[in-house]
């Protein structure tokens, strides 16, 4: 089964906007992937004039809110970094009892990367002292900037939602058969990346996210965290010499 | 597919049923969020009250009829959809076209007569137009199709050529699955299109809307004219292919419906600037000498306003002397004058302005931050909501007043007077627009630090969306006005900017000379206390700034900078720079700051590039190394610290080691190189 990846357009958000924006995007994606019976629920965003749709699954709402809390914590701990949330859908394959792991294998058939750039810059730095730009949305008062930025973010958020819609429409073949479940029909996982390569490129083949699997695996193998590092470094040295 | 009703029909029959139900479902989804009365939804999510728990089994969903669960999307009943679908139940090969029609009331619609509106909302939508014309017999309404949905099942000539499908079952299953996906995205899209906002405003707004939404469901329509279609955008859902054909869904929608909503965005700027231009500019000095809280305006103001309003109302808009009035400008003028002509008589205006500003504010609490425009006080929706409580009115006015202080003599002295009617003949909205625009230009061109325009804009904080609409309009007109404003601002003789010409007809001729004289005084502008005693803090700041600017030496070489920057906005060559030196001073200051900023940016980019290159190299290196040794590969997310010589000394980051069947992620890599070396 082929795996599809969708990198959503990056959004520049303020701290207080994270929750709404993430809720909107995550719920929209999940609404498209909760192919069991749903009773859709319209939710209006407070900060923007956008209405998105939730599946109406309380459990799902809770999980999403938890993840968003985690994300916000992460953002606070690592400011000035581009942040990424990955929503992946997987199929559970039959267990393979190897000596490596006693975990079931997950076959990811779709991954969505939500890219957020949380703004940390101080406002109005040069704002009051120049008016060189004719650009309409850059006034010289903080409120002006804010509302312009807000409008831009709303437009970008709409673009992201349409990006999701287009992706869902264009790529349907990779979706596995729908199990007989209500609501969210496919198992999913939301992970938050810790870092990205600081030139901003995300490596798609090696998703940049913590994985429960990995953590469990390393615990199972009782690998101290430094183990791999020294291994890696040694090897690097060898080659370089 | 359990929700498939478990029928045992043959495959083609199953597929046909899916397609028929698809038509029904999509019509349901579309009409549910476009047809006001047809939807029984309460947008507070009340639908969940009827079913205890969404995640419970299907037995609890007894509130939904079984047929509603088609495509795993449980929706409430939509009578409009039910009424309209019968045709397609019989023949699903016919296309289905749903037109969402916006019916706008004419501008002279009486808001107090809502009899017709109520009936409209409850009338049958099929006969929508008939009932409408009965209600509003004599008045013509404007009808616009804001959305047109096309749904069709195109059958292929050669059916059954499955091309290697394993069994017939999969095709109907696959079709069902894909239809589910398509309907999900339809559901979301319907809420993202512009018409949804109209719908929401219609059903949720407490105020009477000046429009109504109707729909038409048919299988044949006249195609749009090219001009109509030019205004519309198309969104095509990817067709769902089946063995016998394909299911196509698309929509043509009008991307800008904001002009029809109850709160038009365009005329905002002229609206509140009317007020601005009217009272303070009429008697700027008198006004401010009366004290800080000048809600009680001097008596001359009403006269000034009266003149302006009556001028506006009873005079046809003359061809503009202004070379290029912007379309927004004339549109807003038209809109305003139209509304004006239908509102209060001119005599009533001044009274409203001055005595009832507070009342106006209270009448329209939702328009908190806007200017009270007397003409619009009684009418709730059709007029643009540009109201501001009286105190804010004076505040903003005063602040706008302070703006000229930043601008050297020529601009300030522009306040009261004069003649040179190069600019447009005045009507408040026109002036207003130009006023904002020119001020903006002035600021842009002269790089003053406090922008009146933005302060004015800041009062519309409540409606950021609108402001962003406004600004483009004002900015687009800026080019046309900048020519005039820059020309005017650089000419000592005129003492004017747009203020002047605006005020030309608004001010009492008697008052003009006096104010003119006063402001002509060179030290006048720079003495905030003398001229505008009111906003001391603001003006003091402005005065301090101006003094600072004065101190900086005038630089001839900055003329090029100034002209370059000004020329962004005007085609007029900057001549007559014999203007007050403070203009150049101000431009120097800010231009310098700009240059610095640019420099920093360039530096920052350079640094990033350099670091980028180095680290990228190392990243690649590390990846390759590990690959060789461990049959695994590594990506290094994290920060690589590289010393001056370019040797990798330490790495702080998290890497992923991926092996055949498992991977270690977030393995922390730290500082081990040096140890190994020794």
UniProtKB/TrEMBL annotation, chain A:
Pfam families assigned: ATG101
Keywords linked to the UniProt accession: Autophagy
Family under the similarity heading: Belongs to the ATG101 family.
Organism whose genome encodes this protein: Penstemon davidsonii
Stated name of the protein: Autophagy-related protein 101
InterPro entries, alphabetized: ATG101
From TrEMBL, chain B:
Start-end of Acidic residues biased regions: 492-507
Ranges of residues in domain Autophagy-related protein 13 N-terminal: 19-257
InterPro entries per UniProt: ATG13, Atg13_N, HORMA_dom_sf
Extent of Low complexity compositional bias: 468-489
Pfam family of the protein (one): ATG13
Keywords: Autophagy
Region (Disordered): 459-532
Secretion signal span: none
Domain of life from the UniProt record: Eukaryota
Name used for this protein in its record: Autophagy-related protein 13 N-terminal domain-containing protein
Organism: Penstemon davidsonii
């Amino acid at each position: 089964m082929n795996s599809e990846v969708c990198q959503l357009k990056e959004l520049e958000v303020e701290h207080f906007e994270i929750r709404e924006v993430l809720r909107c995007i995550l719920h929209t994606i999940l609404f498209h992937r909760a192919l069991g019976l749903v009773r859709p629920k319209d939710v209006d965003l407070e900060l923007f004039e956008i209405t998105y749709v939730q599946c109406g699954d309380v459990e799902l709402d809770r999980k999403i809110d938890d993840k968003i809390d985690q994300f916000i914590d992460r953002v606070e701990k690592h400011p000035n970094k581009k942040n990424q949330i990955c929503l992946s859908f997987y199929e559970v394959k039959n267990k393979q009892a190897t000596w490596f792991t006693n975990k079931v294998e997950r076959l990811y058939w779709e991954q969505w990367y939500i890219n957020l750039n949380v703004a940390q810059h101080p406002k109005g730095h040069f704002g009051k002292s120049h008016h060189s730009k004719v650009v309409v949305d850059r006034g010289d008062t903080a409120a002006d900037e804010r509302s312009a930025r807000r409008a831009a973010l709303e437009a970008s958020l709409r673009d992201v939602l349409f990006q999701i819609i287009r992706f869902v429409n264009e790529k349907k073949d990779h979706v596995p058969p729908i199990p007989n479940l209500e609501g969210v029909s496919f198992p999913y996982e939301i992970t938050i990346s810790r870092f990205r390569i600081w030139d901003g490129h995300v490596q798609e083949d090696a998703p940049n996210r913590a994985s429960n699997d990995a953590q469990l695996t390393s615990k199972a193998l009782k690998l101290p965290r430094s183990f791999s590092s020294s291994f890696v470094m040694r090897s690097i040295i060898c080659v370089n010499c | 597919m359990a929700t498939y009703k478990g029928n045992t029909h043959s495959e083609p029959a199953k597929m046909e049923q899916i397609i028929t139900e698809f038509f029904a479902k999509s019509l349901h989804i579309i009409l549910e969020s476009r047809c006001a009365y047809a939807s029984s939804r309460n947008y507070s999510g009340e639908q969940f009250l009827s079913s205890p728990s969404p995640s419970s089994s299907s037995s609890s969903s007894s509130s939904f009829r079984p047929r509603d669960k088609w495509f795993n999307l449980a929706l409430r009943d939509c009578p409009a959809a039910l009424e309209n679908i019968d045709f397609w139940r019989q023949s699903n090969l016919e296309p289905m076209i749903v037109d969402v029609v916006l019916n706008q009331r004419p501008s002279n619609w009486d808001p107090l007569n809502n009899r017709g509106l109520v009936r409209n909302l409850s009338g049958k939508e099929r006969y929508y137009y008939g009932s409408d014309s009965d209600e509003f017999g004599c008045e013509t309404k404007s009808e616009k199709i804001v959305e047109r949905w096309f749904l069709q099942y195109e059958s292929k000539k050669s059916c059954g050529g499955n091309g290697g499908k394993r069994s017939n079952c999969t095709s109907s299953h696959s079709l069902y699955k894909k239809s589910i996906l398509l309907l999900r995205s339809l559901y979301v899209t319907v809420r993202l299109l512009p018409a949804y906002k109209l719908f929401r405003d219609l059903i949720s707004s407490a105020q009477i809307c000046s429009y109504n939404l109707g729909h038409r469901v048919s299988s044949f329509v006249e195609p749009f004219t090219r001009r109509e279609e030019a205004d519309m955008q198309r969104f095509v859902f990817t067709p769902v292919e089946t063995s016998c054909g394909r299911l196509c869904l698309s929509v043509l929608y009008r991307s800008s419906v904001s002009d029809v909503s109850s709160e038009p965005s365009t005329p905002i700027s002229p609206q509140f600037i009317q007020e601005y231009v009217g009272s303070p500019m009429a008697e700027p000095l008198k006004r401010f000498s009366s004290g800080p809280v000048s809600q009680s305006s001097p008596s001359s103001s009403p006269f000034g306003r009266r003149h302006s309003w009556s001028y506006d109302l009873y005079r046809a808009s003359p061809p503009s002397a202004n070379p290029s009035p912007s379309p927004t400008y004339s549109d807003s003028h038209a809109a305003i004058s139209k509304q004006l002509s239908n509102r209060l008589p001119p005599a009533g205006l001044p009274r409203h302005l001055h005595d009832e500003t507070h009342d106006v504010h209270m009448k329209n609490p939702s328009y908190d931050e806007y200017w009270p425009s007397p003409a619009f006080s009684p009418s709730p929706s059709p007029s643009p909501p540009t109201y501001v409580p009286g105190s804010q009115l004076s505040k903003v006015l005063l602040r706008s007043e302070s703006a000229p202080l930043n601008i050297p003599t020529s601009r300030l002295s522009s306040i009261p007077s004069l003649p040179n009617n190069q600019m447009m003949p005045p009507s408040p909205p026109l002036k207003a627009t130009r006023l904002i625009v020119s001020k903006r230009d002035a600021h842009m061109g002269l790089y003053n630090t406090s922008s009146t325009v933005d302060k004015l804009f800041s009062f519309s904080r409540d409606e950021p969306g609108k402001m962003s609409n406004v600004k483009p309009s004002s900015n687009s007109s800026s080019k046309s006005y900048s020519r005039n404003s820059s020309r005017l601002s650089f000419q000592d003789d005129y003492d004017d900017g747009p203020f002047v010409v605006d005020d030309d007809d608004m001010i009492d001729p008697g008052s003009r000379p006096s104010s003119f004289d006063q402001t002509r005084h060179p030290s006048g502008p720079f003495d905030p206390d003398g001229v505008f005693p009111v906003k001391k803090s603001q003006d003091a700041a402005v005065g301090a700034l101006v003094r600072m600017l004065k101190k900086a030496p005038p630089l001839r070489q900055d003329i090029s900078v100034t002209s370059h920057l000004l020329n962004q906005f005007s085609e007029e060559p900057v001549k007559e720079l014999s203007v007050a030196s403070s203009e150049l001073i101000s431009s120097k200051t800010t231009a310098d700051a700009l240059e610095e900023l640019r420099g920093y940016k360039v530096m920052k980019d350079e640094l990033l590039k350099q670091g980028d290159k180095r680290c990228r190299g190392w990243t690649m290196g590390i990846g390759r190394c590990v690959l060789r040794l461990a049959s695994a590969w590594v990506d290094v997310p994290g920060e690589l610290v590289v010393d001056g010589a370019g040797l990798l000394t330490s790495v702080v980051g998290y890497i992923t080691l991926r092996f055949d069947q498992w991977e270690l992620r977030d393995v922390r890599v730290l500082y081990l190189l040096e140890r190994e070396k020794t």
